[in-house]
Amino acid sequence: MRRLDFAFLPKVELHLHLDCSLSYQAVSRLRPGLSQEQYRRDFVAPARCDSLAHYLEAPRRMVALLQTPAALTLAVEDVLAQLARDGVIYAELRFAPLLHLEEGMTPEAAVGTVAEAMQRAALRTGVEARLLLCTLRHFSAGQSLATLRLAQQFRGPVAGLDIAGDEAGFALDPHVEAFVEAARLGLPATAHAGEAAGAASLRETWRRLRPQRIGHGVRCEEDAALVEEMRAAQLHLEMCPTSNVQTRACPDFAVHPLPRLLASGLSVGINTDCRAISDTELNREYELLRRQFGWSGQEFLACNLHAIEASFAETQVKQTVAERLREAWTPASL
Ligand SMILES: [Zn+2]
């Protein structure tokens, strides 16, 4: 089977960083004269990095390019076009608005620009999309609360809150208040955890921030009781296989926990994380899973149904997307 075959099958993607996913074509419009080699050197991380902190160097360079409304608009259009090529019919894009203020843009302008561009590109591509706003592990309590206020101000196009960044290097304490407040306001949340740090960090993040989903959670298997609690609570894991190997959260694709967790009844989904940094697309992740684990339409349908159920979309959108998934993905569709 050719990789292209996946492109025609509808998919859901919940874990995708807008500011880590620009194609060569988009970056070369922001840095005219950039060669393919320079793009690969500066914006694509090695297949295996020393650590998550190492992996996060390339995103810093990409964020530096996205400091104007025009650049952010270009990024949204580029990523939505990539999603359409991947057959994605519902997506949640995420970014940290407070990282885009270096050239004088206000936080409100950053979120407003991305939200508007996303809604226009959604109409053009047919990809239903929502935004998640990220705070970062190294941010202060004030920055996390400011990110929450932005999410609340732009509620609608913004569907939730996230915390990303260096899990192993920074504590959760400054961010607890923002997530408790988000829960009080009824704003859904997800949180990166169990990636650079182990199951104990995942457990702490879940207990203190009370997110509906976990970004990655790839190291949850270190604690069998935790896995069972997650299964019972139907806590969704946004898994990103290529990225997990690249950051060494998982030693090798062949031992990625995704198939085991799916088989044991956990809610899991398939995502790209950082399309540029990881040099991947969603069709490629599907192809790798099919080749490595012999997955058929049944497993892919289950992951997509888990993802849309755990999404922060309105009930009607969830139902419509689930119907389209069930119609398209059958054991015979591959
Ligand atoms: Zn991520």
Descriptive account of the structure:
- This protein is an alpha/beta fold.
- It has one domain (12-324): TIM Barrel, CATH 3.20.20.140.
- 48% of the residues lie in helices and 14% in strands.
- The strands form 2 sheets. A 4-stranded parallel β-sheet has the order 1-2-3-4, with helices on both faces. A 4-stranded parallel β-sheet has the order 5-6-7-8.
- β6 (213-216), α10 and β7 (236-239) form a beta-alpha-beta unit.
- The radius of gyration is 18 Å and the shape is globular.
- Bound molecules: zinc ion (ZN).
- Zinc ion is lined by residues 15, 17, 164, 192, 215, 273.
Short account of what is shown:
This protein is of the alpha/beta class. Strand 3, helix 7 and strand 4 form a beta-alpha-beta unit. Zinc ion binds next to strand 1.
Give a short account of the largest sheet: 4 strands, parallel
Q: Hey, roughly how much beta strand do the residues contain?
A: 5-15%
The total beta strand count reads 8
Hetero groups bound? zinc ion
**CATH overall fold name:** TIM Barrel
Query: What is the average of the pLDDT values?
Result: 93
What gap, in angstroms, lies between the N and C termini?
A: 8 Å
Provide the low-confidence segments as ranges.
none
Structural class: alpha/beta
Secondary structure tally, helices:
15
Supply Rg: 18 Å
CATH class: Alpha Beta
Gross CATH architecture: Alpha-Beta Barrel
Which strand order does the major sheet show? 1-2-3-4
Q: How helical, in percent, are the residues?
A: 40-55%
What is the ordering of alpha helices and beta strands? EHHHHHEHEHEHEHEHEHHEHHH
CATH superfamily: Metal-dependent hydrolases
- Count of the separate structural domains: 1
Tell the overall outline: globular
